[in-house]
Amino acid sequence: MTITSPQGFRAAGVTAGLKASGKPDVALVVNDGPSDVAAAVFTTNRCKANPVLWSEQVMQGNKAKAVVLNSGGANCYTGPEGFQNTHASAELVADKLGIGAIDVVVCSTGLIGEQLQADKLMAGITDAAAGLSTAGGPAAAEAIMTTDTRSKEALREGGGWSIGGMAKGAGMLAPALATMLVVVTTDAQVDADTADRALRAATRVTFDRLDSDGCMSTNDTVLLMCSGASGVTPDEAEFTARLTELCHDLAQQLLGDAEGADHDIAIEVVNAATEDDAVEVGRAIARSNLFKTAVFGKDPNWGRILASVGTTNAAFEPGALDVAFNGVWICKDGQPGEPRDKVDLTERAVSVIVDLKAGEEKATIWTNDLTHAYVHENSAYST
Amino acid sequence: MTITSPQGFRAAGVTAGLKASGKPDVALVVNDGPSDVAAAVFTTNRCKANPVLWSEQVMQGNKAKAVVLNSGGANCYTGPEGFQNTHASAELVADKLGIGAIDVVVCSTGLIGEQLQADKLMAGITDAAAGLSTAGGPAAAEAIMTTDTRSKEALREGGGWSIGGMAKGAGMLAPALATMLVVVTTDAQVDADTADRALRAATRVTFDRLDSDGCMSTNDTVLLMCSGASGVTPDEAEFTARLTELCHDLAQQLLGDAEGADHDIAIEVVNAATEDDAVEVGRAIARSNLFKTAVFGKDPNWGRILASVGTTNAAFEPGALDVAFNGVWICKDGQPGEPRDKVDLTERAVSVIVDLKAGEEKATIWTNDLTHAYVHENSAYST
Predict the structure, then answer these.
(1) InterPro entries this protein is in (chains A, B) (predicted)?
(2) Number of CB pairs < 8 Å for A and B?
(3) pLDDT per residue over B363-381, tens digit each?
């Protein structure tokens, strides 16, 4: 269950010395075809890292033959020298593989505002190219970790084809400067338009709804590479469904490993007038530090939820709102409902349901609690 | 330097027993006139507390003869019974003072989702009415405290008139469920339109730009009462200037006492295309948990600032941004500038300047760092 499980892919993960810890920090994933169709979504942050600026150019052609990823440095806000390092990475990969640099996506993660050590990076890329194998997926997944405590991989099977994935980070396809990088591989035969539609559909309801700490990264990238090596062209709806399942699986792994978190919180907003309303309400709650600290304190503080709902433009009547924690409706019609001591928040998984009573749409946003460990990890990260 | 310093006002603060701590929890402020002109601004949260719903009705007439405030319970999300308690408070004050209930503003602060103990509250109001005096300002300021570690008062003098103020809370005229309540008194002769314009002008650049933790309260109220007892009608510009100074003073006292904060951070955004752009950028930075934890860790992490700027719609070029911490320009043109070890963040006061190089407008947003103590205080608050 890794990115080299689908046919047509080789990968490697090596130690280049970019990380002070001496752990693996350069990964390479190659699509040996026959197809080189690819799709990608990038951070919407306007201050983008150099690898994102480069990779957006690569993806103009809707194809990619390789992706090189490094941890130990985000190569962000590093100016022309930083862009040159990204470009040189792609050039070196292209040279080793006999392809064009414009076919090579580049991803970086780590501290921002510092130059990568170019000599170590280039040596690492050379090593990775020499070490490529169809068993290299797990090593690649390990090499992209930063503050992750474990590598994240997933696999879904179709009829004669499969989709593999790896991910790092603790955030959403926007949030968390603990950048999220995701590489998904498939041996299904998929054309460029289908790949793009399927990837956007899958990320919209998975990574896009993961909002660990509301902070948007400069480096987030989700890349889908399609080798076509299975020779099977799947039904688009089925392909999208399996891809969405895989992205959900990876997103939940990211949530479960979020920096310093004690709780994984699923905020389900139901009976909204529109899906956008449901997402807006869920995201407002997910970004309330007072709500998040309350969950850390095992306090089912529904008042802080209503206060967050009240900051949105969604359709609802304040006196009609219901809120449940772990299935106990402790707020009914904007007032105290069942006794709050019936709610047990000792488990890591927490369910919050907010009933807007304004329509029939719904959405789920996933977030984490705000803990002492979050403060510790993020106040000490660069020192 | 208190709300009873201007002529025409009496106040009291008493212990009604609403707080488990046994500290003072009911305050009453009376305007003896001759004028009863008043102005107010309330939270923009759509889920408003009962006292806000009531007081918005009172202020339709642009006048108020008294304000009764309680700590020990926000009377929010308490339904019709809660509204009845608010109404009964106003009725009792009116009865004791021989005025109409519709002339009585009501403010509450404390936990939300719980009914006030009406019998204790009513007994407290009776005591407060009996104890009104022209020396009662400091007692009133003390009785509205919740998690505040000290009471907040201020005074500004005009030519023959003055403005007094008291405040409680740790947040902004929006943020912080640690509700912000502010009562301002003046003996200047001011008409209703002038009072309203002056109060909105003053709060717009003071309380509105205090963003301690990005959470909008359900109870926030800023009330200005004008007795006219000095007999002096000030120039509107001068009155607005003194009122703005007073509000700034109180806002800085709130910032300095914010829950669990180690640092007070002034984020000044300069050379913006519009003032709105400057406010949007400042607020985005103030709401970044990663920036706020970095300051707690004494880390001048300008990368997290640029990442926040990148989430806004303000006019700027990513490669042109400059950032200074305490006067040291450690980011120039979107790249590393002066050495970061020249920045010393050991003092409580922190200055951040972001130069957008897109125009000539500017704005300052004040916030706090995100600390272990914040997490502790807000995870344990209701338990």
Answers:
(1) Arg_biosynth_ArgJ (IPR002813), ArgJ-like_dom_sf (IPR016117), ArgJ_beta_C (IPR042195)
(2) 197
(3) 999 899 988 888 887 787 5
